[in-house]
Amino acid sequence: MREMTVSELLKNGPKVINIGVEQFYEDLKSQEVPVVQLDWRPPAVNSELLSKLRRLRGGGKS
Amino acid sequence: MLLQRIHVEKGAYYDSVTLMLVARELQSMEGIEEASLNMATEANLKILAAAGFGVSDIQAGQSDLLIAVRGDGSVLEAAIERARELLKNPPGRKSTPGEYRPKSLDGALSMLPEANMALISIAGRYAGDEADKCLDAGLHVMLYSDNVPIEKEISLKNKAKEKGLLVMGPDCGTAVIRGVGLGFANACPTGPVGLVAAAGTGLQEVHVQLARRGVGVLHAIGTGGRDVKEEVGGITFSMGSEALLCDEEIRVVVLIGKPPAPSVEERILRILEGGKKPAAVGFIGGKASGDKPPLYLCRELEETAAVAAALANGKDPSSAREELFKSYERLKEKAAPMKRKGFIRGLYSGGTLCYEAQLIATGLIGSVYSNAPLASEMKLADSLKSRGHTMVDYGEDEFTQGRLHPMMDSTFRAERLLSESQDPDVGVILFDCVLGYGCHPNPAGQMAEAVEKARKKAGGRIAYVAYVCGVDADPQGATEQRKILEEAGVTVCDSNAEAARLACYIVG
């Protein structure tokens, strides 16, 4: 189970997925922190529209 | 004759820092007068139109990139090609070429299964949804992004609380977890102090001032400024405070921020009163002050650090406070040979530093105009035009849309310094240079260059006062940065509170 409490985060230190500004990824690497840079792209359609489409596809089931 | 071109790169997303760095490279090309790279959002199209680019025929959506260049017609094509080249391997990227970048959160988690936190700094309109996904995956979240609606902040924080997870932000620029700096953070030593802060540069200032006093910080939990508003109810602030009280390695707790909503302040203070650890409470500009153990109430950032350092070292906090305020009195002697006539113009990259400087100056020399004023009647009609004593926060949204944050690039602020020096009513120019991870490699150099130019034009009419918020272990090196400013004729102070006071005594 990945979920860990705030106390566990403070005890173990951060292991980070960086989503966005590349510099923060570089800074974490320079501090020898385990970090992965996500190659993030904006979604093609907005999430509200996507969930509406999903609902339609699910035949009214939400 | 100058020509212009806008090239649309379909479906190409890059973060704002990369786009700024590439634009800066293009601007240094011979024959190029102006260059900008922006995602084709409505706001960015408006900015381009205001800059004189013809955008009416542009067929692009917010997932497309616009490369806009103006200059000598013969180099425009080459500049666009150069931009496309640079985007393949952006300037400043030190990573190994070919390093694999997962395209989804699941992919990232399979690469780093032990991940426990996400640092999110994408555009605000997407950041909330990404944070939601990260919470679903069981990750704590630091949301650097701003422009996330408050309703989204509330729902994220409630969801996180149920799961026992922390959401730092939105608009959380700085945090430290187990000595690791996240976002804009200083490379200070670790030690027995834990911070919770609703103020980014407020956190940095207290972190640095503790380091100056030989006291380290193990954790500094950022909450984002809105966390202490009534609507959000201090969810992250309370969770952070509770976690620090439970943490066996933390001996002293420090809280920093502008004064919270009364109900939130009461809730937070009750948590600390119930704890067994002394706490320095720095709600800057708040009405409460004095020592009510285990709470020690402070009104300024350096004061909070001095009190916390005394508590960590087993010394008397009230004498530490007295000592500090006596040292501020001695600044009057320092100011005597520097006396000038006229107004103070403060140019800040740190929002909390600007706020604290306004509080101090208002107490000593009267009201201060600002784009982020203490009272609404002191708001500048035009942030680019000073009047009377003025202090400008260059980190406000109006200055960061389409530009890098001033902690990442002071070009725009340095230009303002030069124009302020032309105003015959100005006696002191006051500014900060914030160091640390994520910040510009040489902010003092950028500002010093402007000071040198200003001194050539204005002679000795103006005194220049600055504060360097940083430590020697920061990538920029605090001593080195101070030296650059001092060589340019700037008087550099040891804290933000000191710099603001010195400026006031010079004109007062």
Provide a descriptive summary of the structure in words:
- The complex is a heterodimer of chains A (62) and B (508).
- Chain A is an alpha+beta fold.
- Chain A has one domain (6-57).
- In chain A, 44% of the residues lie in helices and 11% in strands.
- Chain A has 3 helices and 2 strands, in the order H-E-H-E-H.
- Chain A has helices spanning 6-12, 22-30, 47-57; strands at 16-19, 35-37.
- In chain A, strands 1-2 form a two-stranded parallel sheet.
- The longest helix of chain A has 11 residues, at 47-57.
- The radius of gyration of chain A is 18 Å and the shape is flat.
- The two termini of chain A are 27 Å apart.
- In chain B, the strands form 5 sheets. Chain B has a 6-stranded mixed β-sheet, sandwiched between helices. In chain B, strands 16-17-15-18-19-20 form a 6-stranded parallel β-sheet, sandwiched between helices. A 3-stranded antiparallel β-sheet of chain B has the order 1-3-2, with helices on one face.
- Chain B has 508 residues and is of the alpha/beta class.
- The mean pLDDT of chain B is 94.
- In chain B, helix 13 (351-365) packs parallel to helix 18, helix 15 packs parallel to helix 16 (443-458) and helix 16 (443-458) packs parallel to helix 17.
- The longest helix of chain B is centred in the C-terminal third of the chain and has 16 residues, at 443-458.
- In chain B, 40% of the residues lie in helices and 20% in strands.
- Chain B starts with a strand and ends with a helix.
- The chains are: A alpha+beta (62), B alpha/beta (508).
- At the A-B interface, helix 1, strand 1, helix 2 and strand 2 of A face helix 1, helix 4, strand 4, helix 5 and strand 8 of B.
- Strand 1 of chain A pairs parallel with strand 4 of chain B.
Give the low-confidence spans of chain B: none
Query: How large is the radius of gyration of chain B?
Result: 23 Å
Helix content of chain A: 40-55%
- Overall pLDDT level of chain A: 80
For the secondary structure, the number of strands of chain B is: 20
Question: What structural class do helix, strand and pairing data of chain A support?
Answer: alpha+beta
Number of domains of chain A: 1
